[in-house]
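Student: Please help interpret what follows.
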Amino acid sequence: MNVTSKPTVKEAKTLTLAGGLAVLNAAIAEAERIGQPMCISVVDTGGNLLAFGRMDGSRALSVISTRNKAVSAALDGAPTGGVHADVELQVTLAQGSKWTNLVGGIPIRVDGFVLGAVAAGSGTGTQDLAVARAGAAAIEGAEMFLDFTPMGAEDSGIIRGPH
């Protein structure tokens, strides 16, 4: 097949700043509702930071991890925490420690297009995921990934080392 006969442009969509702020505000509202201070990152399709909030009382290290969760979810097009714990370290190292398998990052996907991603951190994986989902719900038609099951070591029941 001749390369020139293939399309040279594809349709793409991404979150705007207004969309990022709507996601951030919805996630903050959920974190307040459950009483768990969070760090929340919202990125566009390319993993570029659009909006960020660090609630009073959240963990300082979550500033970095939520950004990595959001970038990972946006670029993978899948929630973070879905890679089996036996390979998550190898994948993280292969990506220069920019990728994470911590639970709590989800892509914002509407009609098959990944528009960006949202991630929350400072709670349990379950809390982080709930806050991220609440943020994504601010975008009409966003997929909630309700069938997602974490496979990483966090919140999976996997026990390492002596009991």
In short: The mean pLDDT is 90.
